[in-house]
Amino acid sequence: MPALPVSQPHQAAGRVHLGLSIADLRWLLSPKALGIIWQPAPFSLPNPLRGQQILAGNYAGANGLIALAGHAPWQHATEISAHGFDWLDDLASLGNRPARDLAQGWLALWIRDHDRPFARQGKAWTLEAISARQISLLTHAHFLMAGQNTADRKAMFKLLARQTAWLRHEVTRCPDPVARLHGATAWVFSTSSLMGMEGVRPKAIQCLEKAAAQLSTAPEADLPRNPARLASALADLVWMRAVLGRAATPQAVQQAITRLSDCVSVLRPPHGALARFHGCDGGAPALLSQIQDRADEGRKPAALPRFSHAAGYIRLSCAASCLILDASPPPLKREGDMAHASTNTMEFSVNRLAFITSCGTGAGFGPDWMRAGRATQSHSTACLAGRSSAGLDGATLIGGATQVAQSSKPTHGAERVAVSHNAWQADWGLHHIRALTLSHDGMRLGGEDAFAPRNEEDRVIFAARMAQTPRGSLGFSLHFHVHPTITAQSDMGGRAASFLLPDGQVWVLRPSEGAELVLRPSVYFDPDHRNPRATKQVVLFSTLADYGGAIGWCFLRAQ
């Protein structure tokens, strides 16, 4: 599963005598690694096609495909993952001599340029980069050492030892729970795999236990909002259980596995991928199933009820239909650089097929696409006056909803949920209220999206803004982005839209009287494609009057 930015660079520790920092002394005095004890490999999904692409001189970075022109990935790419050796998985999957020669050459080059005293800052030495690089090197040590000369092998073992010492220091300082867990995972893996590091293994396991306890006991509001980060943390914990052995695994690790597996279950629709919120690209269904199967060994997970929630999301699941709703403020504190303006956004799947979705994360398609994908209009929700519910300051999401109210109750033959947020309250005096009803047979999804002031103060703000608006009216739109495997068309003279699904199902969308229905182009960010995939979106338009306004709508299965 793709790596995501999860930490910020930590600065070196305070200075001591002779101008050397404690970090520099740790680099110079780190214990030796005498050999490698082979351990279970982490969950991964190496891509031989990307490996061949790298051999041909192209690297898939966050800004698209990069022509390396004889250089190493980190000399071109701006993302931390290049320093985390994300390319090593793909080269090792080829297993041939050209791939090994290139990997060995890049490793020697990286060590020459970055593994030296006084160079312990920047992207090469963030906790994320160190953890990922250490795991990659240990996992593929056999591949790298085949035919490696003595000097390069000695340099690699020195790097492994130094990074182990570095992890011991950095992991205890990281405030982000997932980044801390990943660092602790790399530290435990190092002390379990490297001869000569056995003495610090108990401390590494203790650190892992604390990181796991933080995730297992954290309030739901403090859990990561990016579903891929939850799945990544679950993968780390399940892997550590395999490395340590079930009998020696701390109880806190098992408790965190149980909790995160339940969260991931809520955020996986029946089609198997993850809901595409806050930087998640959906992940690989087969890999996710493998992780969850391993996580649930020895226990029988409870069947999901019709209504469930996890990590700020609500799930309605009836018969063959499943709805997942982002029902919390955006995660500005820890995930602001990947967060989306997606509060009150829904994703809808039927019969194991993705139907209504979001554009997803454009992170792999360049900065412009990444920025566009984070806007409210790129999600299946309502938008006021063409403005997102949150803004961007550089790469960081700012503003957005600070209060989200939700309620749910079963009705006759259906499940109903209502959510509202205040993202537009300060500027417009309006709250967005979304009510959704999913029938128990899964064949009808009804909804209403409304904008309205909640109190007298809101009404004063709204009246002032309406007075400044031409013709005294304010427009709003409601977006439904359709998965690219589905054919969408406008019907009944623009009063409805129909959708043909790959399995032959036909669904119809009908809006309430007075709403204008338009079919427009959209995109779907698929990590398995080099360019965004073209698709469609249905947009419903209406206007607000002096009391607010609403659009009702209904998806019905026609056949």
List the helices and strands and how they pair.
Elements: H1 22-29, E1 35-36, H2 48-55, E2 58-61, E3 64-67, H3 86-94, H4 97-114, H5 127-139, H6 141-145, H7 150-170, H8 177-193, E4 194-195, H9 201-217, H10 227-244, H11 251-266, H12 285-295, E5 307-310, E6 313-318, E7 321-326, H13 332-335, E8 346-350, E9 353-357, H14 367-373, E10 382-384, E11 391-393, E12 396-398, E13 404-411, E14 414-421, H15 425-428, E15 431-439, E16 444-452, H16 456-467, E17 474-482, E18 487-491, E19 496-500, E20 506-511, E21 516-524, E22 533-544, E23 549-557
Antiparallel strand pairs: 1-4, 2-3, 5-6, 6-7, 7-8, 8-9, 9-17, 10-17, 11-12, 13-14, 14-15, 15-16, 16-23, 17-22, 18-19, 19-20, 20-23, 21-22
Helix pairs in contact: 1-7, 2-3, 3-4, 4-7, 5-7, 5-8, 7-8, 8-9, 8-10, 9-11, 10-11, 10-12
Question: What brief labels describe this structure?
Answer:
single chain; 34% helix; 559 residues; 23 strands; alpha+beta; eight-stranded antiparallel sheet
Description:
The chain has 559 residues and is of the alpha+beta class. 34% of the residues lie in helices and 24% in strands. It has 16 helices and 23 strands. Strands 5, 6, 7, 8, 9, 10, 17, 21 and 22 form a nine-stranded antiparallel beta sheet that branches. It has an eight-stranded antiparallel beta sheet with strand order 13-14-15-16-23-20-19-18, with no helix packed on it. The chain is elongated. The two termini are 36 Å apart. The N terminus is likely disordered.
Radius of gyration: 25 Å
For the report, how would you describe the main beta sheet?
9 strands, antiparallel
The outline comes out as elongated
The residue ranges in which pLDDT falls below 50 over 5 or more consecutive positions are 1-20
Q: Could you give the count of β-strands? A: 23
Mean pLDDT: 90
Number of helical regions: 16
> What structural class results from the helix and strand content?
alpha+beta
Strand content: 15-25%
Share of helix among residues? 25-40%
Distance between the termini: 36 Å
Task: Say what oligomer this is.
Answer: single chain
